[in-house]
Specification:
heterodimer; A: 188 residues; mainly alpha; Glutathione S-transferase Yfyf (Class Pi), Chain A, domain 2; 2 domains; three-stranded mixed β-sheet; 57% helix; B: mainly alpha; globular
């Protein structure tokens, strides 16, 4: 049975990392995760197999062949940083967190080093993608290494097309909802 | 063909069609190679690798990365071994070293021939004026 991920497109912090992780899993093996979207300010940012807790970690754990973790502890540390420090809108605090990430990337291509991105990169990239404060900071190369690292993933459709797929699905949801309403009006 | 290129070809890294911009970068680094001016271009290369993970601004390394790497590896080792102030050399060439380290691991360069890199050396924060 395949897993199900529900992404809330109206959440204050959109769960891009979860969405990208699901896209990566589906790229490795089609239909691994069924991705659905909701448009509801009150709902949790994301729900994986019915649970809204630690969804990103749960997706990563569900696909150990895809997210090969050589260092579970370090991965968990960066997922925590992503969830707690990279989504904040306080400019001063965010600057400090980005500086920390920048230092880590001084001599590393990916957050945990190595030859391929890991869940740590997905978590941090997704967090930054959801943060409206980040766009201009990346563009202005305030943290040069972060900018170089972030830009690399923009070359990967699994990452950069996540936003597009979300917007498209939300538009379809809206369309479906309004066409439903029209029907009711017609009935009345 | 060099051994490293042969090795690279066995890694089955797909070579995507290059955009016009990427093609221009490719030509630029190939002409640096042909002219034998790699050492003179090291500062320029560091600047380029500051903003790009690889030399042709691709998602994955290309043959051009491997060819240039072959020339840059001995130069980087020399830079590190011939200085008293390692931190200074790291700070100046941090992006080249990051890229060298990626490629030497990708191509499984024997550890004795590698550039030894301390990934956690504390470097001054780089600020673009």
């Amino acid at each position: 049975m395949s897993a199900t991920l529900v992404i809330n497109g109206k959440a204050p912090v959109v769960a891009y990392a979860d969405l990208i992780a699901a896209r990566i899993a589906n790229n490795a093996k089609p239909e691994s995760v069924k991705v659905e979207f909701v448009d509801d300010k009150k709902a949790a940012p994301s729900t994986f197999n019915g649970s809204t807790e630690n969804t990103f970690q749960a997706i990563v754990d569900a696909f150990p062949q895809v997210f090969i973790d050589s260092n579970k502890e370090e991965t968990a540390k960066w997922i925590k940083i992503a969830n707690e420090e990279l989504v904040i809108k306080n400019f001063q605090k965010l600057s400090q967190s980005l500086e920390h990430l920048d230092t880590q990337l001084n001599l590393r291509t990916f957050i945990l080093g190595g030859l391929h991105y890991t869940a740590a990169d997905v978590a941090c990239w997704g967090a930054l993608r959801s943060n409206g404060m980040v766009g201009s900071i990346i563009k202005n190369k305030v943290d040069v290494n972060v900018s170089r690292w972030y830009t690399l993933f923009e070359l990967d459709p699994l990452f950069h097309e996540a936003h597009e797929s979300l917007t498209k699905s939300l538009q379809e949801l809206k369309k479906a909802a309004t066409s439903g309403k029209k029907k009711e009006v017609h009935k009345a | 063909m060099s051994d490293l290129i042969t090795k690279f070809k066995t890694l089955s890294i797909s070579s995507p069609a290059l955009s016009r911009e990427q093609n221009a970068f490719n030509t630029q680094w190939q002409s640096v190679l042909k002219s034998g001016q790699v050492e003179q271009q090291l500062d320029q290369m560091n600047l380029f690798l500051r903003d790009n993970t690889f030399l042709v601004s691709t998602l994955q390394p290309t043959e051009t990365d491997v060819e240039v790497f072959e020339a840059v590896l001995p130069l980087s080792k020399q830079l590190v071994s011939s200085t008293k102030d390692v931190k200074d050399v790291y700070a100046k060439y941090r992006h080249v070293f990051r890229w060298v380290d990626y490629l030497q691991n990708l191509l499984a360069v024997p550890s004795g021939d590698q550039l030894t890199l301390n990934h956690d050396l504390e470097l001054p924060r780089e600020i673009i004026e």
